Structure formats: structure tokens, C-alpha cells
Amino acid sequence: MVWDALQPVVTWLGDSAFGQWLGQSPARIAALFVVHLIGLTLLLGGTIVISLRLFGIGFRSGPGAQLAREVAPWRTAGLVLMLASGSLLFTGGAASYFEGQWFRRKMTLLLMALIFNLTWFRVVANAREGRFSPWQNRVTAGLALLLWFGVGVAGRAIAFF
Amino acid sequence: MPVVEWLHALEQTTIGALVRESAFPYVEGTHVLALSLSVGTVAWFDLRLLGATMRLRPVSEVFQSVKGWMFTGFGLMFLTGALLFAAHAREAYDNPYFRAKVALLLLAGVNTLVFHLTIDRRRADWDDAPVPPAAARVAGLLSLVLWLSVIAAGRIFAYDL
Question: Among A50, A104, A117, B96, which is least packed, fewest CB within 10 Å?
């Protein structure tokens, strides 16, 4: 299994002086969670903005590709904040996170969401008007929302189940 | 009746006990993920007020596009927030971060009210301006800072509980 292959890296990361240092302080972990949530509002909020346009129910003036370009810097900033704070949170508790089923589900969904975002979603959101049918736009937006909210749901489940 | 007794009575209600004993992960998960709809959309309106995104789009279009989702998001936040409070009313009441969160929420509300009663009344004059007037930019910046502070106080409070 691919998870087993990652085990040595996870052990090394968790046992590292940096990982130990991060994990020791509840204040540091809480601060990282705050950054993680601020990233979430920008990333998911930005995904909602682009999706409203793809669904044809908002931000309808001007070309859709222009909206995607304008939203991109802030939305990408949200993604970067989430990935950076998430990686640090993981480093602060690597062994216990890695054991969890919901953590593994979250990482699987995250990988799917990232691939979808960098390929199909990117193409459709930046396409010239009329290149894709309204239904293709809607399905793309629906899948993007499903994947990113799926990552969020799995993330919350890590804390409880 | 003193506040403590009133809070205790709230915790003893059927709904308070239900959330505390079984529904907590779902109510809390909804509270966190509804951030994408509430703060996640209001942040884009604030960024538009600051002239930091969607400069070629009228401010009204941004507001009209997000308002339904924004109000739904804030409705969900207040509903799930009230349920979470009912589950742990006394602990929440005593927690300094919870008190800070409530104070910040009130400030965010006052900022929104002042915005609507002053500069927003003349929105027709600056609706198409790529960068809105200073008063609108101040309202946008305050809203952004206050909402992100609400998130921070809420997350630290949950961690502190």
C-alpha cells in the first residue's frame, strides 16, 4: 500500500525536533488552526464565487474567464494558507494523524480536488464564452464544490471520529 | 434568577442535552463549514469594497450575487452557534475567548449597520468605481478584520474548551 510506503517519512517528520517543538504548544497549534480556517474562507468562498457564475446564477456581467482571473489570486492565497498550516499541523502530530482513517480519506479527497482543480476546473473556468455548454459548466461547478466540501467534511471528522 | 442558573437550565433542555451527548460533531461541523457561505462570501464583498478584486464589476452585482448565500450562511452560523452554546452554556459564558467572540460579532454588526446607513445610501454614485470612496474602503477593511477576528476567537475558544 502507498500509505505503508510513506510510513518512514511520517515517523521521521513526527520525531524531528521541529515536529516535537510544534506539537508541544497548544497555543501554536491553535494559531495554526486559525490560519487554516482563514484559508478555508478564501478558498471555499472563492470556489463558491466561480461556481455561481458557472451555474449561471451570479456574477453574470462580462466574460467568465475574467471573473476567474480576478478571483484567482485571493483563492490561491487561501489554498496556500491551508496547505501550509495543514502541513505544519500534521508535522505537530504526524504519527496520530497518519493512523486515522478520516485523515487518509481527507488526503485522498484533497489529492482528487487538487488534480480536478488544476485540470478540468481550470480549463472550464477560464474558457471563452460558449466553449462549454451550460450543463458542462454546471457539472464542473458541482464537482468542484463536492470535492472541496468533501475535503472539509473529512477534515472535521478527523477531530471527532 | 442569576445567569449561572439560567445557563444551567439551558444545558438541561432536551436540545442542549442532545447536542452535548450525540449531535455535537454534526452541529460543530456544520458551524465550521458554513464559514464558507457566511464569511467566505462576505469577504469577497469586502475585497470589492477595498477595490482589491472584481474592479470592473459593479459593487451591486457582487452584493446581489452573494447575498442569498451570505444570509443563508449567517443563518446557519447563528442557528448552529446557538445549539453549540446550549450544549456547553456555562463553560462558554465563563470563557474569555467566547466573550471576545461575542464582542467582535457585535462590532461587526455595528460596522455593517453604519455602512448601510451612511456611504451605502449613496452607492449609486460609486457603484461602478473600480476603487470605492474612502468611507466604503474603511467599512470593507473593518468588516474583513472583524470577521477574521471572530473566526480566530471562535477557534481558540473551541481549543480552550
Answer: B96
